[in-house]
Amino acid sequence: MPLAALRRATRETVSGLPREFWWLWTSTLVNRLGAFVATFMALYLTLDRGYSASYAGLVAALHGLGGVISSLGAGVMTDRLGRRPTLLMAQASTAVSVAVLGFMHHPAAIAAVAFLVGAASNASRPAVQAMMADIVRPEDRVRAFSLNYWAINLGFAVSSMAAGFIAEVSYLSGFLIEAGMTMVCAVVVFLRVPESRPERTAADKAAEEVGLGTVLRDGRFMSVVGLSFLVALVFQQGAVGLPVAMGEAGFSPADYGLAIAVNGVLIVALQIPVTRFIERRDAGRILVVSSLLAGYGFGLTAFAGSVGVFALTVCVWTLGEMLNAPTQTGLVVRLSPAQGRGRYQGMYTMSWSVAALVAPLMSGFVIDRLGAEWLWGLCAVVGTAAGIGYGVLMRRLPAEAPAAADVTAVDTEPEVRTV
């Protein structure tokens, strides 16, 4: 692509989004630049502490259980207290708990604090997603979610490579760096991001009826939640199954860091053109293709025997991730009422949290009892099932209605920005 065309494509992708979005985007980027615990917890426990893959899976599962519990609670808080207070409390709690985790040595203490880290870190997700849906125009949401996803992976690409080498010197430094960067995120939100919850009026009394029961009775939305769980179960293996399998095969933390960093690097390089490709295309087909790419991308890991081949398999499932993440998030917003976005986003976030709970237990058990090859074959089966499910669901979904009355509490006049 000529340089001028690339510049024009980039300008069109990032223009027209409100100032508040870019400050939230900056907070996301800073947070991911300091990411360490979720990526290297399995290696920390198995290589540095000498625990088994099953124990590492148990700790990761407790981390996921914390997220399961906090997702719904944070969703309710997002609707009742507001997006901003919920986000600030979640980020401050994450910073403190991550720092404490670095000083834990007893197995029970590590497990308990990992649970608290999972609860605190996942509590921010419903607030961030609801806030983005509030401040961005409906026609720009897939693009906005793609850009936020791009920021997550820009930070992840940098932090994965750096943290892999930091881990070989001092795991504690990684914990403290993540705690500090998360606190910086809280400061950015406190100083620059206003509350975005839609103002309640007399005409919005029906919003009080949007409770968790309403979400659970929404069959179409809960189908999306179920399919999201299957896809998340596969993607979680990049953080739990893959590092354990590589460690048992004799690869170092730096080897895993280099392989998994391909995920972030590809997303940084390709997310903007991929966003332009998917923005006006059928969401159902994109979700089907992304599920298959995820499943079979991890399935190919069974044939990997070098860092280079591991990196190639990461390329395959990363493409599925790039297609899935913004499309699925946009679908969730499409099915969520404005006054109940926190609860709906909380339930959606819970699907990923439950996957974070189940995936490490599944991977630890399968690797210990059957071997890593069986885990990768199971990923292919789950990805296929998710693809079939999305194909059936999206055929029954009605066309999206225009959201002319989508009123928000912040100014969303377009502002041209570049990154």
TrEMBL record:
Membrane protein topology class: Multi-pass membrane protein
Top-level taxon of origin: Bacteria
Q: Which residues cross the membrane?
A: 21-47, 53-74, 86-104, 110-128, 149-167, 173-191, 224-244, 256-274, 286-319, 347-367, 374-393
Q: What Gene Ontology cellular component terms go with this record?
A: plasma membrane
- Tell me where in this chain the Major facilitator superfamily (MFS) profile domain is found: 20-401
Q: Which CDD domains match?
A: MFS_MdtH_MDR_like (cd17329)
The record's annotation in InterPro entries points to:
MFS, MFS_dom, MFS_trans_sf, MFS_Transporters
User: Is tRNA processing among the key words of this record?
Assistant: no
The keyword Electron transport belongs to this UniProt entry's keyword annotation? no
Q: Sorted alphabetically, which keywords does the UniProt record give?
A: Cell membrane, Membrane, Transmembrane, Transmembrane helix, Transport
Localization terms from the record: Cell membrane
The record, for SUPFAM superfamilies, names: MFS general substrate transporter (SSF103473)
In Gene Ontology terms, what is one molecular function of this protein? transmembrane transporter activity
**Main location (coarse class):** membrane
Know the name of this protein?
Transporter
UniProt source species: Streptomyces curacoi
